[in-house]
Design goal:
Elements lengths: L7 E2 L9 H15 L11 H8 L3 H13 L3 E4 L3 E4 L14 H15 L4 H13 L24 E2 L7
Antiparallel strand pairs: 1-4, 2-3
């Protein structure tokens, strides 16, 4: 039997994001980061239920959504497998300069006393092209909805930023 890929779903019941969508988002994040690759088997519904204490139908709903988007395929009696990846070349090599620069930035931000939410706000503002300080106008458009800018897909050796 094929072994499940090294992805562990983390469910935040207070996020306001539907549980099945958290699984979908975390799977997409793992695809973007290269944690999951085409051919990898996703954890079985039973494995996810044991790790997260959620309803098996919720896991199956998430996997159906991934199949609908063409990211996964169910193989009867074998499990659900990744069909394709997401993202650009930055995730192909874990030692890529972009990843290294971002890890360095996170280290400097932590050293400066920033917490995860502070870094998320700065990163989101930079993505949105909003000013990140100095002005009194604030961040245009407001913060991203809670739970939409952050997904956790943990695997061996990974630390949360």
């Amino acid at each position: 039997m094929a072994e499940s890929a090294a992805v562990e779903f983390r469910i935040d019941r207070r996020s306001g994001v539907a549980t099945y969508m958290q699984i979908v988002q975390q799977t997409k994040q793992a695809l973007r980061l290269g944690v999951l690759r085409p051919g990898d088997r996703l954890p079985t519904a039973r494995e996810v239920v044991e790790a997260t204490a959620i309803n098996p139908n919720t896991v199956l709903k998430a996997y159906r959504e991934l199949e609908r988007e063409g990211l996964a395929e169910g193989r009867r009696g074998l499990g659900t497998f990744v069909r394709r990846t997401l993202g650009g070349a930055a995730h192909e090599n874990p030692d890529s300069s972009l990843r290294t620069e971002l890890a360095d930035w996170v280290g400097r931000a932590r050293a400066a006393g920033l917490e995860r939410d502070d870094m998320t706000a700065l990163f989101t503002a930079a993505l949105d092209g909003a000013p990140t300080g100095g002005g009194t106008s604030g961040v245009s458009g407001g913060p991203a909805p809670h739970g939409t800018s952050r997904t956790n897909s943990a695997h061996e050796g990974e630390t949360n930023a």
